[in-house]
Amino acid sequence: MDAVPARPARIQDVAAAAGVSVSTVSNVLNRPERVTARTAERVRIAVAALDYVPHPGAAGLRTGHSFAIGLVLPDVTNSFYARIARGAADAAYDHGYSLVLCHSGDAPEREQGYFSMLVEQRAVGVVVVPLSADPGRLARLRERGIPLVLADRAMPDREGCSASVDDIAGGRIAVQHLLDSGARDILVVNGERGIRQCSDRYQGARQAVRSRRGARLGQVVAERMTVAYGAEIARGLEGLPDGVFCTNDFLAAGLCRGLAERGVRVPEDVQVVGYGDLDVATFGATSLTTVRQPVEDLGRAAVEMLLDEIEARADHLHETRVFAPGLVLRDSTRTPSDAPDHAPAVNDTTRHPPDIAGPAVRASVGTSPTRPGPVSEARSE
User: Fold this and answer.
1) The whole model's pTM is what?
2) Reduced to 3 states, what is the DSSP secondary structure of residue 308?
């Protein structure tokens, strides 16, 4: 007959072993200044001998909060959001907090439901990764009275902290690379226009094309940003461009697959740049040149800002951290030295933001070039 496992030790067991009251054990664990050193030592010896672990829920009832942080993601199966979760979990663990993962499906009603649960469970704060949040939706979340930080999206000025990537710069360096590699007829395969990141990446692409004589820019919008939709778009293209910028790596991987089915060579016939440097970028027959984002840093920075707001309280200053993307060169584009001669860049009257991205790095499959870091930190009241 199997042995019945021993039940976990309770605070009453510790009190009995140390020869003190339950309230004395509680004081040793939570308010040690109220207990003599000799008594505290007896309690600690009993705690160690019984392998007693205080119940976090009881501590939450006593203090009014727990040591849990909520992380609300639109899609927990997407590797991009999984990497944000990893950075957030690492930061939470380093500071003695746990992370509660919530899958919203980017549905406002589910976000509200999760916020209600987290408030009831006395979570100290929430990191939200919204896909298509409007200002009213964010305002409703902030009204719940729990500290809130956004990741992968900038928070409106003075309304809270956020960590995001400069996607305008990312779109610009992606298309600049295509132009420098000889492409002139550029197609952007984009997500829905309501997604801020997609809009910013397209804006950066337009900036790059406007600075190059003879370059043209077109756009096709995918219903969903998946491998399947990227392949479907490739199969339906009538006039092939010589360069394609896909605003995520899933679309780019699918596009390469669809082009291969048509006998179109990448990069000899069509050059392709993706965005994100996700795992899928190296899975296909042709590894993707792509724009890398410091994704884990987004999650870590969001949690660190949230904890600063919780701990500093009145002294806290809302902060916006913007991280720079960087280009990772692989096999889906040619190097500029291989490009045919075209007209050089010309000056125009359009004012462009400074090119803050770092230099491109050539990566072989399986390598991990140095991550780009934060490029600006603007503080507001």
Assistant:
1) 0.73
2) helix
